[in-house]
Design goal:
By secondary structure, the chain is α/β, with parallel strands linked by helices. It has two domains: 139 residues, 3-Layer(aba) Sandwich (Rossmann fold), CATH 3.40.50; 162 residues, Lactate dehydrogenase/glycoside hydrolase, family 4, C-terminal (L-2-Hydroxyisocaproate Dehydrogenase, Chain A, domain 2). It has nine helices and 14 strands. It has a six-stranded parallel β-sheet with strand order 3-2-1-4-5-6. Strands 7-10-11 form a three-stranded antiparallel β-sheet. A hairpin with a 2-residue loop joins strand 10 and strand 11. It starts with 10 loop residues before the first strand and ends with a helix. 43% of the residues are buried. InterPro entries: L-lactate/malate_DH, Lactate/malate_DH_C, Lactate/malate_DH_N, Lactate_DH/Glyco_Ohase_4_C, NAD(P)-bd_dom_sf.
Amino acid sequence: MPSEHSLPQTRVAIVGVGQVGSAAAYALILGRVADELLLVDIKAELRDAQVRDLADVAYGNNSGIRVRAATIQEIGQCDIVVITAGSRYSRGETNVQHLYHKIAIVQGIVNEARPFRSDTILLIVANPVDLLTSLAQELSGLPASQVLGSGTFLDSVRIRGLLAERAGVATSSVDVQVVGVHGNSEVVAWSGVTIGGVPAARWFPDKTSHLAEVANQCKAKSQTIIRAKGGTPFGIGSVVCSICSSILFDRRDVCCISHYLSDYKCCFSLPVVLGREGVIKAIDMHLDQKEWEDLDESAQELKHMVERLKSDQGL
């Protein structure tokens, strides 16, 4: 087994093995997270090549992980199903057309994979992650606590690292979360930031200036990566590995991920305790009034969009 703490014959399926899916698989192998890794893609030649390439990683890492090709019909019996599959823009395609194309892809995957095993965790990585996670939650037939999205996890990791560099401390000493709807409307919970358990204001007397600079630096970093290479596959891959580890090893880590919020009837990111059953419990997070207002505004917009799409799709 990859680890004495792992469950017997744990299996993770990755649907879509392009840049993001292959990076996630690579991270899972190096992390020795599961016993078996199933790769699924409509491009059979690409899928099979990725299987052969990643199998070499497993051999070289002496992990004992089996990497194999699979069909969508097989993945419903896995411990975790990771959906990274999306689509590139077609020539002349509008943003709305592209969105509906992505929705159709995720809808098709979930419908073909059903019925899922009762304890399967479904993890959506494809963007727009909160919207797709909300729709997958409706489609899957799984409990809401078992349908998750990568959400703002990577954004939280990134801003934590940048703040740690500025303070000259280890990243693990910084507690800051990015919450809400992933993208331009997400909210950095500055009001609750601590470094080594000490409020950020004690580290940075001119707190407003420092934190604004970090926020701008974080946004610029993401934009430059995406502009140069089209995405952040290694960062997302590491996030997938972290989430899967928390689940399969039942680590009860506090993670900021997209999950179902009953008050809004849709999925977006707030901190939760993550374990083998998915979301074990939500964390009562401290936000100031402005942060709550910004989060609520974007969440309400997402809620209305989800309701409209559910009506269009007959869900």
